[in-house]
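Q: Second attempt. The first request was missing the SMILES, so the protein and fe (ii) ion are both included now.
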Amino acid sequence: MTPARRSPRSASFLKPNARVARQQAKRVRSTDSAMCIACHIGLTMPLGQLALTAPRHLDGQPASEQSFVAARNHNNAGGWLHGVSGPSDRRYRYDPKELNMIDELLRPVTGPAAWRGEDLRSGDDWIYHLSDDERIELETVGARFLAEDPDLRFVQAEDYPLPITAAGLRVWEEAMEDKRGFILVRGLRSDLYSDALSAAIFFMLGLHIGDPMRQNELGDAFDHVRATTDKTVDDPTALGSRTTDKLGFHSDSSDVVALMCLRGSKSGGASILISGATIYNELLRRRPDLAPLLFEPWYWDWYKQDHDAPETTYVSPMACMVDGVFSIYAGSRMIRSAQDYPEVPRLTAAQLELLDELDAIFLTPGLPIEMDFRPGDMQWLLNYTALHSRTSYLDYQQPEKKRHLLRLWLKREGRPLVPGFGKNVVKGRAEDRDGAVPAEKTRFRISQICYPRYDWGKDAAY
Ligand SMILES: [Fe+2]
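A: Got both inputs this time. The predicted holo structure:
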């Protein structure tokens, strides 16, 4: 049972000095900045980049060098990042309760992005069924794309216009940006196509929705979600997408993540989504004292997501609120595993409590929605609105029947986010890596990339 707690919006919950500061803070836009109450030096700092930006006074004037240094030292020492691990001076201590002064931030998120799976399951308006005309256009233009086999680093959506499907594409985009954050598109007949044609159609649609990004050191614009290892997901040298194991809820490091099903499993392997806004609202209901921690920077394990990563970790908040738009980038596994590196500051008791609470929320019946993939199904998901996971599955023995999904990562402009939020580790599809990859290993054509790759990361990743 959730213990009774005082409302975070109750003024009496705050210490006197914090109550005054709260009133002052209302004079600035609390959606993108908050007073640095941990320091009590009367500064504002954009949430989610607290350690990166020079603070300003509440009237908008730049803070003095002395104040800036104090705040920077506080940040560098872990005041915002790591609770009470900062300097011993009380001014630099972190008190999560005091952060509840940001009450505009601590209101529940409303709107269609705050859905519950049990409500969505009662209907199917999250499924878009392609019309015959749309399907025929996609098959026809997709076949031309495959025949021309353009360089995937440079091909543009204008090269392959889709006038019939264009209205539907806007519906998908609206579903991601303004509604529940995802859509399942059904109606392609991938069981009748070559994998190359399915891949061509999928990539072409990706071009019309965003800008595909590279998904590994070799510059592949596709990844293959297919079990190619007997390793378990707990093995630090394994990639979850190469196992048959259940995957925990997480966000990918792109704006949009899209999956296309070429072949399903023998059993299991359902895709699961959970609304980020609902997670946040549930956290506010259960543990409002922990909710502000989401907006602080966290260390994420980079290496275990990408064995070619240039650093062991990267830093991103788990949530941000900019211009009234709530976004999430969350999941506990890669935060917990970042603790394997000695250079990463230790998680505080409060941070560990938050991770445990999030894991408990993920398991709450009625919140997630499960969906089975049929061949040709495409799931388009805006990472900032919902987390995704997968149940474990049983594969067929025959290689040609094994569960096989294609994955695209897309960049989309327009969503207000704090700088460096989540996606800062992913590169554009045409970004040069200074010849780091031998030319014979690169695959920039659909005819090449429609097949799983076995010549990269074999020891570590497969
Ligand atoms: Fe993922």
